[in-house]
């Protein structure tokens, strides 16, 4: 990831960044490409800095598959170490909310997070805590790959957009 700009907006710090021009494999045929067809900006809530919220505005590529026999023309670049496919916050931010939620549920958890610059609803805190596997759970290893909707009802939107990856 390359950081282009950091914008201080008072309560929020915006980090504008882009992915490096790496080779990516087509999800259908597996052929590698790095030919950008278009660009999108993903906005991801990230860990706070100095008590202020951080929004990562990451420019990702829509890549063109170069395999003429492949039905997929383009696909969206994923950043699995940073955020789940449909998530609107980074994995580390989700992990922070889930960790607080397991210890301090609901409204108290949301209030505690807010003091450190992460503003979320109590239902988000409860949901993230519910989705956190117990330590030693075999699902723990797969946790990073689970897409976590940012808001209630996001699953519907995710399903609708799945063909547009
Ligand atoms: Zn392909």
Helix content: 10-25%
**Hetero ligands:** zinc ion
Shape: elongated
Order of helices and strands: EEEEEEEHHHH
How far apart lie the N and C ends? Answer: 20 Å
Computed structural class: alpha+beta
Helix count equals 4
Low-pLDDT parts are 137-149, 152-165
Main sheet, how many strands, which sense, barrel? 5 strands, mixed
Please indicate the count of domains: 2
CA radius of gyration: 17 Å
Instruction: Give the overall average pLDDT.
Output: 80
The total strand number stands at 7
Strand content bin: 25-35%
Kindly describe this structure.
- With 165 residues, this protein is α+β, with helices and mostly antiparallel strands.
- 24% of the residues lie in helices and 29% in strands.
- It folds into two domains: 79 residues, no CATH class; 71 residues, no CATH class.
- Strands 1, 2, 5, 6 and 7 form a five-stranded mixed sheet that branches.
- α1 crosses α2.
- It is elongated.
- The C terminus is likely disordered.
- Zinc ion (ZN) binds next to loops.
Describe the SSE topology.
Blueprint: E1 2-8, E2 12-18, E3 24-25, E4 32-33, E5 36-49, E6 52-64, E7 74-76, H1 91-103, H2 106-115, H3 122-130, H4 154-161
Parallel strand pairs: 2-6
Antiparallel strand pairs: 1-2, 3-4, 5-6, 6-7
Helix pairs in contact: 1-2, 1-3, 2-3
